Amino acid sequence: MIKVENLYKSFGDLDVLKGISTSFERGQTNLIIGQSGSGKTVFLKCMLGLFTPEKGDICYGDMKYKALNASQKRGLRKQIGMVFQGGALFDSMTVEENVMFPLRMFAQASRSEMLDRVNEVLQRVNLVNANHKFPSEISGGMQKRVSIARAVVNRPKFLFCDEPNSGLDPKTATVIDNLIQEITHEFNITTVINTHDMNSVFEIGEKIVYLEHGKLAWEGNKDIIYKTDNEAVTKFVYSSDLFRKVRVAQQKGY
Amino acid sequence: MNYIAIIGRYFLMIRDVFKRFTKASVLRRLIVQEIHDLTVRSLGIVIFISFFIGAVITIQTALNLSNPLIPKSLIAFAGRQSIILEFSPTFISIIMAGKVGSYITSSIGTMRVTEQIDALEIMGINSLNYLVFPKIIGMMFYPFVIAISMFVGIIGAYSAAVFGGFVDANLFLSGLQEDFITFHLVYAFIKTFIFAFILATVPSFHGYYMKGGSLEVGQASTTSFVWTSVIIIVSNYIITQLLLS
Fold it and tell me: What is this model's ipTM?
């Protein structure tokens, strides 16, 4: 579980996060949504320890981030997996080497043991026969799978995903969403996903946090988001013509 | 004020490079890779340039020595001094600022743009140690490149002088050994080591701290070349003043 307490972050005169408090449960997919510039990425980067908040704290399980020393923070980072928007795969390494990278860095295991683990996770993300290909030789969807495999190969307790669907076609995006949700349930990890893909919201939003101008404007889940009377959320969710039409159809009882 | 902040950040980066070392087995592989990428792959261009510049230095010296009172052996002497003291260590280093420096800045800059550096940090890896330390060690083999450059430069000088008919072989070889001061070689290699460190760290600094997208990677590479060259030239002056004057 991740608990965020009264988080503030600013850059110069610009206040980006203005006192966010929320919690993300273990074993479920937690989504952060909001318009561009609402502070989603900064919020995620604060949780990843890439930005230091001015005020507030983040608890990872029973560990308060601010109370940790440098070595404990490094230890915590080893429990974190991250799926970047662009994949962030190492260009000079093959798929197999990319996934093996966290193991080579931290695991005390033989090469054959590491290779077994790599093949296990690659199979789990349905990526076979791509071990010796370079990131530039595989599709965007496959790169996302490799990125997910690399994020979970070390059996992390926390998984963060920054817009995992961006640049993917709707079908592949749904596959990636479902894969992340399955892995979250299977490995019982706390997953936090930063997205503005409304399909993801309705598909895997077991908890949804809506940010507006750096503040938490609404929280709930996929079952109640379309019923909410929060104007900001409604405007955001139904900004898509397709979803507007679905809503109208639902209201008419179709 | 901004320049002072940049210089300060550069030294803080150097400090962080030597903190929290990456796993030795991983670092070993990276160092071998960097030795190959930064020094071995530079040999071709260094040999090519050194041979022809050595030849041109000799031809120009020979053509300007019209006074019959000046011995012809001076052609070899002047060529040797130019190559060992300045051409190989300094001129080749400026060329390397373009070749190796741009490569370092663009490769690290691309990693920054594509969030690969963030990925390293999130995994709990000291990205500066992982990326920059192997480059510094790789560039410590750079003096071998300069030694080869000196050798090839003198071969070029010999070829131009002897085959161009400016001086006969024996006279050239005697001139080559005339008034040889061993410390000049020591001086050349001391500054080569310093230039190697500059060539590894200044372009890394520009790549690591760049902001923006692919266009900015190109701009960072250009800026890196300019600053690496400027720092090499200024350091060259200071080292020469300290060691030779």
Answer: 0.84
